[in-house]
Amino acid sequence: MKSEISTRRFTQLFSATPRGARLARLLAVHQLGEWGWPACCEVGESVALVVAELATNAVTHGCVKGRGFRLSLSVEPSGTLRIEVADPRGDRRPLPRRIATPGDEGGRGLLLVDALAARWGSEPWSPSGKVVWAEIALPCLTGGVPASSSQSSIRTVTAPEAAR
Q: What is the 3-state secondary structure (H, E, C) of 115-150?
């Protein structure tokens, strides 16, 4: 008897703009809802915050003129959702556990990622970029995984064109 293998992956390229970061968050939450975890549940809210932070960091710190960033989501066999944001600036890796002073306007986002994710980190992305990733534990759904979860969504359209 063959076992059924389901692939739950979502990949999308976005422009390195605030609009691209916002659309990455919206599409991630939408895709998670398609897989059975609605935006209003704890997982949906955690994913929205983590994607928003990683995408904003890619736009703010990983931007190279004319190049965007890539968001990938995948449900792993270990029962976690892996979020990956790849950008072209491999020389600017995230600094974990930076403590922001009360007067700082930024510097707290990765603390949120650290609090919400089971694990997170970064690694080089060929040829010169980086991938910042986070894994969020997924609760089991009653009756197993939803029927729509076996669908793979891989897209290569840039975000601003998709939104028009």
A: HHCCEEEEEEECCCEEEEEEEEECCCCCCCCCHHHH
